Amino acid sequence: MSKKIGIIAGSLRKESYSKKIAKNILSMAPEGFEFSIISIDDLPVYNQDFDDEVIESYHSFRSAANGVDGIIFITPEYNRSVPSALKNAIDVGSRPYGQSVWNNKPAAVFSLSIGTISGFGANHHLRQSLAFLNMPTMQQPEVYLANIGEALDENGNIVNEQVRSFLQQAVDAYTAWFKRTAE
Q1: Which of 163, 141, 140, 143 is nearest to 151 (CA)?
Q2: Which candidate in 2, 41, 167, 170 could, as Cys together with 34 as Cys, close a disulfide (CB 3.0–4.6 Å)?
Q3: What string of pLDDT tens digits covers the 183 residues of the chain?
Q4: 122/83 Cα distance (integer angstroms)
Q5: What are phi and psi of 112, to 5 degrees?
Q6: Do residues 100 and 90 lie in contact, with contact meaning Cβ atoms separated by under 8 Å?
Q7: Nearest to 74 by CA among 127, 9, 128
Q8: Prediction pTM value
Q9: Distance of CA 163 to the CA centre of its chain
Q10: What ranges make up the beta strands (E) of the chain?
């Protein structure tokens, strides 16, 4: 039976680089793994008052996250941290209290930027939240993608072979680490 890995792109922009990288990673799943994108696009800002209501987008998101065995987060950096949309998705998935969809799911963090810093701050801030949520997170290789706009063509396909190879190595490292961690 295949292990299911969800990919969450931390940006809402239709043409976001995070979404483009997520789509490229879908085809990098090795044998025995199935990758799928879990969208965060339609999530209202988390409000604890909603815990007692049926918010369809919350339900769909939590169901999708519950249906996978692990998560790869792909995040840009906003103001040296994670985008609010990604933090919101993490909060939505962690509630209601005691019903977190994240608990004990092996995670990986891939960060990117159009500049040279590669989302370093976002990468490390996200790891802090994942530690609290009891998500074992792959430590090596660290995945920072600089100048990401130059690695993609007009259709969002990776055209830089070095970037493609590095991402494939990172995906392979994550799935190997996942197998060891999830045992």
Answers
A1: 163
A2: 2
A3: 899 999 999 999 999 999 999 999 999 999 999 999 999 999 999 999 888 888 899 999 999 999 999 999 999 999 999 999 999 999 999 999 999 999 999 999 999 999 898 899 999 999 999 999 999 999 999 999 999 999 999 999 999 999 999 999 999 999 999 999 986
A4: 8
A5: -150, 165
A6: no
A7: 9
A8: 0.96
A9: 18
A10: 3-9, 33-37, 70-75, 107-112, 143-145
3-state secondary structure of 135: coil
DSSP assignments along the chain, one per residue: -PEEEEEEE----TT-HHHHHHHHHHTTPPTTEEEEE---TTPPPP-GGGGGS--HHHHHHHHHHHT-SEEEEEE--BTTB--HHHHHHHHHHT-STT--S-TT--EEEEEE-SSSSTTHHHHHHHHHHHHHTT--B--SS-EEE-SGGGGB-TTS-B--HHHHHHHHHHHHHHHHHHHHH--
Distance, in Å, from the CA atom of 128 to the CA atom of 109, rounded to the nearest integer, reads 11
